[in-house]
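INTERNAL TRANSFER SHEET
From: sequence group
To: structure group
Subject: Dibenzothiophene monooxygenase

Please process the attached sequence and return the structure record in the designated field. Keep the field labels unchanged so the import script can parse them.
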Amino acid sequence: MTIAPSPSSSRIEPFAPWRGHADDAERERWIAVARDVAAALAVDVVDRDRSNALPVAPVALLRESGLADLLVPVESGGHGAHWETAFAVARTIARVDASVAQILGYSWLNQACAVFYGTDASRARDVLARSAAGHWIWSDSFNPVSPDLALVADGDRYLLNGRKAFATGAAVADVIVAGAVAVGGRHDGELVVFALDADRDGIRHLGDWDNIGYRASASGGVEYTDVVVTEADVIGVDRDEPFSSVVTPGVQLLFGNIYLGIAEGALEQGAALTRARPNAWFLSGVDRYADDPVTHRAFGELVSRTAAVEALADRLNRRYDDVVALGRATTAEDRAAIEIDVARLKVVSTEVGLEVASRVFELTGASSTKSAIGLDLHWRNLRTHSLHDPVDYKRIEVGAHFLNGTVQPVSLYT
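Return from structure group:
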């Protein structure tokens, strides 16, 4: 499989395939699909978490359901949905399986790198069409805290060497997006973004992911040994242009939605367990835990706080469609504004999600700690992923902007 065709003399032009907003029909259609996928995943989610096995069957389900091609324009063979819908779909799946929701969300964002980093509209369209035709799942090995990859010219091609940790989904994906500063050749000194077949010669998936949460996310490292990278693999060059970096607020917005989905899933499971819980605490004066005012108070607090996060997430999901529609007309101010708003979501979704996933045990009792029930999966997933980048720096980012109007330097975390 070749990710992109050889460069041609096609006209270079701005390209932003996402326009307008999702209507009710679009949202209802794909939320229904997401619920069906979540129901299928729920059957064995606890067993898959325990086994720490590669999520081969869940990823096949994402392809079969049409979700892999959700954001590809209709004219390129996809479903032409909007980011608002995509984030809501990821949230829905995260209520049951955050690992699979993460793989799906990353697939959309990495697939979109052909647009964010690309400058050749014809080539970007071709990449998206190929992706839709093959129902490709995309991943990346862009982790900025890992050592940089070495991309060194070898004649008219490059050789890629190095190792990246935390390459979520790469071991079960079709495509890996990566980047490196080229040494020599046509792109000497440029930060080149390229897309590689996940099973290309010289790529080794390390299988070293064994953490307390996100166990079904295939988040192990990737090692590259003399991997051939040609011009056909290059999807763009990062020149610090505002539109290309809009992908990062998209990543953080995905996180906020997944954290919210985890909280919603914990509440849903906690409510079911509470309704089924027999008897009541002897001092409560009621016959069932579900009738205890203490239980009502606690659920009321957690549900209300979760609903507030949902309102913010829904607003930002819709607004992200406005930002990506600007394409190359995106300004630094446009990019900074969405970055700050998404940082606010990241703060509250982390705080509320962790509180809900932890306190729900107070309402469901000691019996809910049985391993077979899997209520702990919500907390373990969120606790693990919320360490992706320190939320304290998001608080600082929001506070510095509120007081002084300052914006943090653009990075793969901001």
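Handover comment: Residues 24 and 85 are 10 Å apart (CA to CA). The first strand starts at residue 138 and ends at 140.
Transfer complete.
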